[in-house]
């Protein structure tokens, strides 16, 4: 769970072979926790989507990261960085059972 001061950044145009360690090195000056980097995969194909989510400690560091890394080159691809949209909470998983009558 994120604290209220933390900011989630969206990094687009990630090359297929880039690891979370490489992303952590890129975002290290901005207080990125390497354990909190997400590289989402397509549910059907299990291939990476080409994006990453990175958590930084506060808005000031997020703004600095966006400015410094906006067109950084990572694995020969130019990445873009922006503040990620807040996502709605996920619905509960599993089967729904009605109460016994």
Automatic annotation (TrEMBL):
Domain RRM: 7-86
Protein name: RRM domain-containing protein
Matches recorded under InterPro entries: Euk_RNA-bind_prot (IPR050502), Nucleotide-bd_a/b_plait_sf (IPR012677), RBD_domain_sf (IPR035979), RRM_dom (IPR000504)
PROSITE patterns, sorted: RRM
GO function term, MF aspect, one: RNA binding
Keywords: RNA-binding
Transmembrane helix as UniProt keyword: no
UniProt keyword annotation of Cell inner membrane present: no
């Amino acid at each position: 769970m994120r604290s209220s001061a933390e900011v989630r950044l969206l990094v687009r145009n990630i090359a297929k072979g880039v690891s979370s360690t490489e992303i952590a090195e890129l975002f290290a000056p901005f207080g990125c926790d390497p354990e909190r980097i997400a590289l989402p995969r397509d549910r059907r194909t299990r291939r990476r989507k080409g994006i990453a989510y990175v958590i930084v400690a506060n808005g000031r560091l997020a703004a600095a990261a966006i400015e410094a890394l906006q067109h950084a080159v990572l694995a020969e691809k130019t990445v873009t960085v922006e503040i990620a949209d807040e996502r709605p909470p996920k619905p509960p998983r599993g089967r729904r059972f009605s109460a016994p009558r």
